[in-house]
Amino acid sequence: MRCSSLAALVVVLAGCDGHLSQLSREESARCEDEAAAHTPMRRLTAIEHTNSLRDLFPYAEISRPALSDPRSRVGLDNEAQRLLVDQNTQDAFGLAARRTAVAVASAIEGDAALREEIFGCELEGAEADRCEAQIVSRLGERVFRRPLEAEEQERWVSLFHEVRAEDPRDVGVPTEVLIEGLLLSPQFLYRIDDGVDLGAQTTELTPYELATRLSYFLWRSTPDAQLLEAARADALRTDDEIEVEVRRMLEDPRAERMVVGVIEQWLSLDRVRNETKASDLYPLWDDAMRDDVVEESERFVSHVLFEGSGSFVDVLLDRTAFVTPRLASLYDVTIPSGTREDGWVEVQLPATERRGVLTRAAFLAGHAHEGYGSPILRGARMVDRLLCREFSEIEPPMFENEEGREIVTNRDLFEAHTSNAACRTCHDQIDPLGFTFEGYDAIGAFRTIDNGEVVDAHGATPEGEPVEDAVELFDRIAESPAVLSCFGRTMYRFAHGRPPSAADTCELDAVQRVSRRTQGDVREVVVSVALTPSFRLRAL
Q1: 341 phi/psi in degrees, rounded to 5
Q2: What whole-number distance in Å separates Cα of residue 60 and Cα of residue 63?
């Protein structure tokens, strides 16, 4: 079960147009010699924890724990080494477990039909002991994402029985105690991969562990009943079985939310959530506008990848936008008649002004200061995220006119600051990209004049080829191997919850080839990641 698994990519199923070619025997053989990379044990992120509770107990009111998980250098919030547990984390998970247990117990207390659905039995008469065991077994398997071991089953049944013995007529309290205990267990809060020893310091994930890895990759949540049933039937063994399950999961709205969330984090589209602007300069910007800007980027990415072409290239090129009247004024577009009841309407942004999500207000306003745009922040984000050339976070600039040059426009200001020779190594990469965004102000509105002067938005591609502005930049780089490879790398990194290592070289190359060949087709990239060897293996 090594990299030869990737040959299954040639099995062209739903959504694939036959443009994937079979990986060569030599490439597969080379992957077989690669050692499995180490994947550390991970606790659930705040998002995963909330999603899991909602999917486990859809009939109860669930609140998200008061946690903010730290982001990695590429913006992702699910990397194991950063998901530490301190007192605040313990308190937040403890409170969530308590509230959830109370909500579930309250929901089932007076609802016989719901009790039958959850328990599958009645806690009465001679069958009471059997029913207790069934309740523990059912809830335990769902919460732990695998069947309980014999010792675990005995211990939890004993607890349930002991609490229930105080009042056999009461269903709510023992259920509440059981659920709270299960939700506080490491087996729920962590994704524990014991696996089956394959020798050579490598273990193969059990079917339940693989089901869990699939569900938290594609859905950021716990496995559903169908995925657990596939694990129970040992039907996640072959490439074909896994691919069929992955494609089924991709049709679920949870997969859409996962992909949109990953892109939002990776490209820092959500940075704008905390942005304030100078009200005297930008009277259009307020809390309502900021909320619209965030939602617009989410709607757009979702539309392109799950209603449109499915290609990441179009995330960088498509001019479709979903706007409210507020956003229409920012983008200077006319809303056609027939505005939807929710206030959003589909429009096309001007071809001379916009290309894709990175020329929209979420990215532009999120990478700007209160009173002026920032070519450094915008260019740096292009370099370290879209091109996967990582370097340290860029600090807000301190403007010093070292050369005594005249400062009139925003570009003049930044060029004066970055002219220092000591800064050139980074700025030679950042500035040619960042200055192409000079056609947009601090809230992302298009402009042609800056402080009385004509805007100069010329710059260059990462290869140094000149471009007139951001529109031409994205026309030139959206389909570039560097960008498409970076998209594949990001999805691979998210799936594993860690940065790629040397041991991942072969299969990471394979995923990036899929991304390049398919124009960043999100479904094919996700499938290719799920079929890599290290997705099913763990180094000891």
Answers
A1: -60, -30
A2: 10
What pTM value is reported for the model?
0.88
Beta carbons within 8 Å of 537's beta carbon, 6+ residues apart: 1, 36, 195, 198, 202, 203, 204, 205
- 107, 149 Cβ separation under 8 angstroms: no
Per-domain residue ranges of the chain: 42-190
Q: 251-290: b or e for each residue (b if 16 or more CB lie within 10 Å)?
A: eeebbbbbbbbbbbbbbbbbbbeebebeeeebeebeeebb
The answer to whether 12 and 30 have CB atoms below 8 angstroms apart is: no
Strands 196-199 and 190-191: unpaired
The Cα 487–Cα 263 span in angstroms is 9
Cα 234 from Cα 231, distance rounded (Å):
5
Place of tokens 């030599």: 26
- The pLDDT tens digits along the chain (540 residues) read 333 333 333 233 333 333 343 443 333 335 555 656 667 789 999 999 999 999 999 999 988 888 889 999 999 999 999 998 889 999 999 999 999 999 999 999 888 899 989 998 888 888 889 999 999 999 999 999 999 999 999 999 999 999 999 888 888 899 999 999 999 999 999 998 887 766 667 788 999 999 999 999 999 999 999 999 999 999 999 999 999 999 999 999 999 999 999 999 999 999 999 999 999 999 999 999 999 999 999 999 999 999 999 999 999 999 999 999 999 999 999 988 765 667 899 999 999 999 999 999 999 999 999 999 999 999 999 999 999 997 644 444 444 445 555 665 766 655 665 556 556 677 788 999 999 999 999 999 999 999 899 999 999 999 999 999 999 999 999 999 999 999 999 999 999 999 999 889 999 999 999 999 999 999 999 999 999 988 988 776
CA distance 503 to 491: 17
Phi, psi of 453 (to 5 degrees): -110, 150
Measured torsion, CA atoms of residues 254, 260, 263, 266, in degrees rounded to the nearest 10: -70
Beta bridge partners of 538: 203
Neighbours of 306 (CB within 10 A): 18
Note whether 209 and 195 are within 8 A (CB).
Answer: yes
